[in-house]
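Researcher: Here's my situation. A collaborator sent me these components and asked whether they could plausibly form a single complex. I don't have experimental data yet, so a predicted model of the whole assembly would be a useful starting point for our discussion.
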Amino acid sequence: MMFHGCDLAALAEKYGTPLYLVSEDEIRERCGEIKRDFTEKYENTRAAYASKAFQTLEMIRIIDSEGLSLDVVSGGEIYAGIKAGFDPGKMVFHGNSKTKSEIAEALDAGVGTIVVDNLTELEIMNRMACDRGMKQEILFRVTPGVDSHTHKFISTGQLDSKFGFSIQETADTAVPAALAMDGIDLKGMHYHVGSQLLENTSHLMALDKILSLLSDLKARYGWTAREINCGGGFGVHYAGDPERIRISDFVDPIMRKIDDAYKDCVDTRPLVTIEPGRWIIAEAGITVYEVCSVKTNSAGKVYVGVDGGFPDNPRTELYNAEYEVEAVEKYYAPHDVKTTVAGKCCESGDIVAYDVMLPTLEPGDHLAVLATGAYNYSMSSNYNRIGRPPVVMIKCGKDRLTVKRENYSDMLRNEI
Ligand code: LLP
């Protein structure tokens, strides 16, 4: 089996398993599509890569070289961005519970946009910015009260959410407060309704609410927004349907709605930002495992145990994610055995994929799990004291190590 011009069995041999493989070509193609069909197609737009989906120094450098902005959610993500040479002025800093020290780090680094989630944060930020003689550009995170019909753990736009301000609180309290603050420059609004959305309905419903909020704010305070940040959430196909969703399927209807709203308006249309994470990286990554055990249990089910699982891919257990699995050396063999691919952790929920059709496998065979690029490396853990796999990037058929495998002593490095 090949992956972007590289032989998977040879890579498994060279780097060992489990192994994260990421195609730089695919990432650059996705960034290219975003430029062609969004930032270059529509004036006054920008795209920020939501780096929580997969943040390594090399990934940040790639995003930087593609000219995208960077969405960050913690002091650690800001720090890594700076280490990778990324301009903090092009960072968008999120978080519903930013610490005082993270706010200070963001202000001191010169982070371009901070998305403020709540009034406490607004007040702290204003004080800190005033102390530094600065005026920080911010957006408000607005929870538009829209249910995005995705898994509840990754749905964020509904009224009962830990994120952001309600429309009413934004209009009655947060905006007048911000407009009276010397350390705050309120640029606009941000919303993000949820992740892994396969269609646009909730995005468009949220946008309607944001647009009417903006006209209300204009009428009440004479304030006009300079930016609308529509968040991310653009979904990908994990299993089954091989058709990939174009970025234009998501952004064209968004831009139509925004342009319509501003067409007869004296104000110029605000900057429109999107924040795709998963859409850029999910399908660019795969994980390769070695089969350690094969058994048929007393219920007659075939279980294939691999040398990774929950520590490198928690998504099956957390979100019931479904992945496609391929047999590396037996790619062309008949896939006639219904197989559950089990991870190696001591817990029953540690399953990589349930009931997938695979050939008859033996220990030593390799399996490739597809579209694992988003939110696996970044959510990986050392559960059961298992080291994180290395990340190998592929570019033009050539492989290079970008993150080393975590060994036993790496896992003990902070222990006294
Ligand atoms: N912007 C904001 C404010 C977000 O909260 C998120 C994701 C994104 C952008 C990017 O969303 P994306 O385009 O990647 O869907 N761990 C979960 C996903 C959590 C998403 C959190 N926020 C998973 O593995 O599916």
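Model: Some features of this prediction you could bring to your collaborator: Residues 283-411 form a domain with the Lyase, Ornithine Decarboxylase; Chain A, domain 1 fold (CATH 2.40.37.10). The longest helix spans residues 201-221.
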